[in-house]
Amino acid sequence: MNFDFSDEQKQMRDEARKFLSEQCPPKAVREVLDGKAPYDKSLWKGLAEMGFLGVAIPEQFGGAGAGHLELCVIAEEMGRALAPVPFSSTVYLAAEAILIAGSDAQKQKWLPKIASGDAIGTLALFEGKGNPTPKAVKVTANGGVLNGVKKPVPDGAIADFAVVAARTGSSGRESDISLFIVDLKAGGVEVKSLTNIDLTRGQAEITFKDAKAEPLGAAGEGWSVITQVLDRAAVLTAFEQVGGADRALEMGRDYALDRIAFGRPIGSFQAVKHMLADMYVSATLARSNCYYGAWALSTNAGELPEAAAAARISATQAFQHCAKNNIQVHGGMGFTWEFDCHMYYRRANAVALGLGSLSYWEDALIDRMRKKNAA
Amino acid sequence: MNFDDTPQEAAFRAEAKAWIAANAPKQYEDELRKASLGRVALTGANILEVAKAWQKRKADAGWACLHWPKEYGGRGASPIERVIWQQEEGPFGRLSSMFIIGHGMCGPTMMAFAGEEQKRKFLPPLASGEKIWCQLFSEPAGGSDVAGLRTRAEKHGDEWVINGQKVWTSGAHYSDYGILLTRTDPTVPKHKGLTMFFLDMKSPGVEVRPIKQASGASDFNEVYFTDVRIPDSQRLGNVNDGWNVSLTTLMNERMSIGAGVATGFPELFDFCNSLMLEDGPAIENRAVRSKLANWAVKASGLKYTSMRAISALSRGERPGPENSIGKLVAGSMIQDVATYALDLQGAAGALSGPEDAEAAGKFQAMLLRAPGTRVEGGTDEIMRNIIAERVLGLPGDIRVDKDVPFNKIPTKGRA
Lengths: 375, 415
Hints:
heterodimer; A: alpha+beta; 14% strand
């Protein structure tokens, strides 16, 4: 049994970590946090040059053609570094949707641009509050144009194109939903930046007024593609979350070793030690669930829906747990703008919602486990 | 990344599977599979006899104590082969519960510290289950702080005379031998005055009394020593070096991965799949589903953590202190799961008779046994200390008695 990443994949992780520690130190993240830039453009270029943006994109479409296990490795490092770039929206959502449902021409058009860093993509799914359901999709597609409002759209204000879920029927079934690709720089598209709790990653409202749209995949199959995209993105995002959880745990551990109170390192008090031990436990359980998700994703196994939900729940909990207790270990300093703790706290809580919140995935997990049990 | 055996592992698995299929006591398979947390009992058969017979059969065919050297009754197998065997043995592995301490802790300690002649004499019957061993460490005054133990060993000629009391000794009532940690010098700090021995549990002056546990069952014992004489040749390690000897014993506990820890989750999931609440099936209730999902990811997290550890074994790495999380997570989880299963039953959840209670009283039994799992073999708090200190590298607890002679350490809290 080798339920682990290969030596080559681990080497890639080391390279990515080294690259990000040089190109994406907390100082660089703060440029975006403080609103000086919408995202880190030079980092984005660098990621493209390293081949990280197209790591899971086949070579014929300009990618490295490595695979999803390699993408999981990169995702973990992006999460650790809180990379302030539209990686998840472009790579896990837009690129995966095109890989699943795109025509050869669409793949030829968009994937090489994604791999080279020349196109930022996103998925426009949500329309106000609530979790992903076909019913919540109100944006309409008629005669090749879209009308309606999507929000929140991750990285919507900096994206060049979006994969948009729109209504093409009114039967009340999943088959009412179809997907479209929309050039966000074209006419009939209004984009407004929205403030959100994670200041290192943007959210936007996009209004379509007779915006030209090109179908992605067959009409009426949009929801089935969305479900697949969300499962894949759940695994990849879970790796980001585990990366973030690990880093928050390390920050807490390091501070507990350095900070002296009552004449001894605070890490020698059991109240603090045990809090850190519990953080390690949740990060470890999440990592193990993620590995199973990675296996299912990379082999396209029938277990993917269940594995993705488990990874998503476990990693969401772990990152939230580690990020909040990292602040607690830091005490007052942890609650300052100056310390980096809040950046992890912000990310942990924003990323917990982006693909649908915990309650959505809990529900999905139980449905999927029941289905397997019945089978 | 894969779950596949290497060709050698696959060959070993096939051999093990075939032998088990041909030799296991299949008449008990169903009962063993269904046995929940706690004691395994078989209807119409003496579990001890069935377990000994299975162990002997395995030993005769070279399937006992796989990782031990052949000359001591083992197979000389690799750690990963041992894990594969455990996976294949499945429910029949539950018959090994009375041998776990002997095979996992006493045997390895004997192997490291006994003389060659003693090893050849004592280890093979331990491996084959003909002789059962227990471990006599914990005392009323030394649980988590085991080095605080007070049982005295005093040298009289070529013999040591033992007086004192041990507690929480699993299986002492059916054990033939035990390894015993004693205090030989109370005038030096506590870790520096301990010495380890092994002894015949039938020695004059050894008295075993069962403990009635909070759950009502009796799986453990108190063992009293009154002028028990042990020859010096049965000393393990140097005089006053017993602490280091005991570390070897406890380290070997960690090698026992791969058997899987009980979380109660599969039982709860099955239960919720069949239970009807006032407003429909429990499994369709939003609150129930949320609880189940949270436990599901803990259970799967543990399962795949253990797969990662097995993969490390397969590569030839040694399991480290990170494997403490299994017991830590599963212990409180099974307690929470049992509490919730009763909650779902309302007032009737308090009924525990197999004829009245849902799921034949399985969850009530689980609830009453669970507090013990959070204490035995290292409390939750000790497990967290292990993770914090040995995995995360945080400082050890401040030990105010570290440099104090043992006989000067206060023994009472409030005066």
